[in-house]
Amino acid sequence: MRVLLVHPSALMYSEIYLRLEPLGLECVATSIREAGHEVRLLDLQIFTDGDYWRELETFRPQAIGFSVNYLANVPEVIDLAVATRRRLPDCFIFAGGHSVSFIAAEVVEHARGALDCVVRGEGELIAPQLLEAIGDARLSTLPGVITADGAGPAPPMHDDLDRFPPARDLARRRRKYFIGVLDPCASAELSRGCPWDCSFCSAWTFYGRSYRKASPEAAAADIARIAEPNVFLVDDVAFVHPEHGLAVGRELERLRVRKQYYLETRCDVLVRNREVFEYWRRLGLRYMFLGLEALDEESLKLHRKRITPNENLRALEIARKIGFTVAVNIIADPSWDERQFAVVRDWALTVPEIVHFTVATPYPGTEIWHTESRRLSTLDYRLFDVQHAVLPTRLPLARFYEELVKTQSVLNRKHLGLAALRDTAGLAFRLALRGQTNFIRMLWKFGSVYSRDRQYSDHFKPLKYSMRPPEAHSASRPRARDLFVHLGAPSRA
Ligand code: B12
Ligand code: SF4
Predict the structure, then answer these.
(1) Which protein residue's CA is at the shortest distance from atom 7 of ligand 2?
(2) Residue 256 has pLDDT above 90, yes or no
(3) Is any atom of ligand 1 closer than 6 Å to the C-beta of 18?
(4) Residue 491: its pLDDT value, please?
């Protein structure tokens, strides 16, 4: 069967700093290809809708699978599915991915027949079975599959991360993938899942708080196959188990792999497992993202980060000593007023790290989706991108965005525009000579993307698909297992 896998377009905010390959879709592609199907992949972060329609003409897919890792992409994918159904009435159209796993039934409903099903959870095991069951009543009984007629049982998690290495050969125009100065940049995965349980995050609920690792041999072999000189390690929390990080590193040395890396981890993991990070610094790890989230004890407790402000600051000191370039994240709450923005701004200007802001957002799949007692101020999927306020703001909304954008632009002056070009002129020049211009373009994009008026007016766009709000707010925590997508967890950290 001819199968086309499609990643939707980038949200404007992630477009500034990075554009990354659709690793999940590539893993699904491997499992489908192994089952004997002909697979193509189209990434709308790079290609246009016009390219998509041309692909339908030339490839004539019999099945199309959309990746919906992000809530904000839901309307785009439904619209594409509806238009595709009109053009190719017999094509089997399905969707899967992180966010859609938590809202599968409502998305099937919105699509009014344009989506044959939504697949919850990991796609590797189920995708080939799904294609096998097209046109069969068995379809809606498959694990993780939701159709208009019914729902199968919870999907299992696959127990061998080595089994389906990503089909990177299917991602076209790969030089478009980058993150900051790592231009071009591929992605790879050493582990899946997160054993913590932060109240605002759906990483742990998706994988049932499990934590699985690829074997050091397979992980290193996968990285060795990557053509790009730079790699984004997509693990939710890198190097939770230090011996695993060390073993992967030793394999990379054995294979003589030399690349530059970017990863994301927790501050306490960095403090506890400092030796792995030092070792990886020697292997080429240069950049990391630390989810600080808040500066004060009370907010950290509220997010259930299970960490103290001192541990966070200690991690920053260690990262500086080792010589990493660090980006941190702070969650801005809609209840913030000018004073709170100013506190964070003042702090951020005193530290050398790159400071990012996200807006506190209750997502389906998170605990705060159920416990957040403030009523959502919008049910527009497009605004659930952690850059818009979806809860009532204490400041008038336009003022809130003014403060947010002002804070972001003050902080961005540290590492974008002329300041950054001064520090990286040599590198920018070398990249330009090779025709790699993602990084250079990034330095000037901020002003054209972030704007108070743009963020504010996004709230008044006509609403086509309305999110199903949480059933009832409750002050008590839902049971963790009621939030999980998968059945059972193969291993715990
Ligand atoms: C890399 C990454 C990104 C990349 C995007 C990469 C890409 N092109 O897909 C970047 C950095 C751009 C990004 C941005 C954002 N991200 Co992000 N991201 C991740 C991260 C760290 C890894 C994703 C990944 O590659 N995973 C590994 C692959 C193998 O897993 P996967 O993609 O989930 O795919 C599996 C399944 O989902 C499923 N599947 C996926 N697609 C399909 C399709 C079909 C048809 C089927 C059947 C199955 C299927 O099968 C796959 C294999 O098992 C995840 C956390 C994580 N570890 O998953 C967060 C995560 C997905 N991101 C998150 C968020 C919040 C964001 C942002 C909104 C944040 C921001 N600051 O703006 C933005 C917006 C994204 C956008 N649309 O532009 C949240 C999602 C929260 C939510 N409920 O929506 C996550 C879970 C992080 C977290 N801890 O909260 N992200
Ligand atoms: S925020 Fe990080 S540590 Fe917390 S649950 Fe999500 S991935 Fe895990």
Answers:
(1) 236
(2) yes
(3) yes
(4) 42
Rounded CA Rg of the chain:
22
Secondary structure of residue 121 in the 3-state scheme: coil
Give dist(CA 45, CA 15) in Å, integer. Answer: 8
Tens of pLDDT, residue by residue over 18-34, are: 899 999 999 999 999 99
74 C-alpha vs ligand 1 centroid, how far in Å?
14
Instruction: Answer with the residue of higher pLDDT: 274 or 296.
Output: 274
* CA gap 335, 433 in Å, rounded: 47
| Protein residues with CB under 6 Å of any ligand 2 atom | 194, 196-198, 201, 203-204, 236-237, 266, 291
pTM metric for this prediction: 0.94
Query: What value, to the nearest 5°, has the Cα angle with vertex 317 and ends 313 and 320?
Result: 135
Nearest to 163 by CA among 67, 31, 40: 31
Instruction: Return the closest-CA partner of residue 31 out of 146, 126, 161.
Output: 126
CA distances from 476 to 10, 388, 441 (A): 36, 26, 47
Q: By the 8 A CB rule, do 188 and 219 touch?
A: yes
Separation of CA 426 and ligand 2 centre (Å) = 36
Looking at residue 316, its pLDDT comes to: 95
Confidence (pLDDT) at 493 = 37
Residue 246 has pLDDT above 70, yes or no: yes
Yes or no: say if 60 and 91 are a contact pair by the CB < 8 Å rule: no
DSSP state at residue 11: P
